[in-house]
Amino acid sequence: MKFSLTPILAAGAAMVLSATSDMSQGTITSTPFGTLKDGRPAELFTLTNSHGSSVQITNFGGIIISFNVPDRDGKRDSIVLGKDTLEEYEAGHPFFGVITGRYANRIAKGKFTVEGKEYQLAINNGPNSLHGGKEGFDKKLWAVSSSSVKDGTPTLVLSYTSPDGEEGYPGTLRCEVTYSFNDAGELKIDYTATTDSTTVVNLTNHSYFNLAGHGKGDILDHTLQLYCDAYTETDENLIPTGEIKPVEGTPLDFRKPFRIGARIDQKDFAPLRYGAGYDHNFVIRGKAGALRPAALVTDPASGRTLECLTTEPGVQLYTNNHMGGEVKGRDGRTYGRRSAFCLETQHYPDSPNHLSFPSTELKPGETYRHTCIYRAGVSK
Question: Which position among 43, 166, 344, 347 bears the catalytic label?
Answer without folding.
Answer: 344
